[in-house]
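Most newcomers find our protein records easier to grasp once they have seen one. The structure tokens are whole numbers drawn from a learned vocabulary of backbone shapes. The record below serves as our worked example for the rest of this section.
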Amino acid sequence: MLSIIIPTLNEEDYLPLLLDSILPKNQDSEINLEIIVADAGSTDKTIEIAKSYGCKITKGGLPAKGRNEGVKVAQGDLLLFLDADLVLPKDFLRNSLNEFQKRKLDVASYRLTPRTDSVLIRKGFNFFYNWPITFFQKIISAGAMGILVKKGLFDRVEGFNEEIKLAEDHYFVQQASRIGRFGIIASTEIFIPLRRFERDGYLKTCIRYLLCGFHMFLFGPVKSDVLGYRFDHYSKN
């Protein structure tokens, strides 16, 4: 079974788009899966929406904790962690699972495509993110927003580090790839929003993640609020 785990906090505007893209009309209906929403205390209609799609609900927290809590109630031997604001292309699950099995991977992540009509932004994202993580995947492991991993490997690395404030997903992939086979899935992609870039500014956001990368390389993962990251950054209030 495949367990899809989604940490949420006030995602009523975005969660339906993701859940719609997981429906059998867009994915292989023969895939045995469950969807788990680990919620950090939403005050909007997030829980109501998740229940309407038949999701299993559990208590969450910050993204790392939410993912770990989701695994506690998961029944699958394969885990797919997704951010709540993503959209999956048609046949994403079938393509992912087929390639994962064919390449004998233990943990994998994806190329990210911004949901925008701007050719410049899409090309920039490909040049600065998708190309490097794909080209250097045998040297440096990187993964964000979507991570597919075997449950046994997840247990061996003891899940996501809940002390990390930013890029805990990248750190998890790095730890997992030390004892398992890692790869970037080439047969499909994930569509992502640009809301953080639009709210904080493209330059500021890029600098924040660049500094995070340097911090991880020189000192280890970011466990303080030095870079000013917040979950539920997009609250309407």
Remarks:
- The chain has one domain: 2-218.
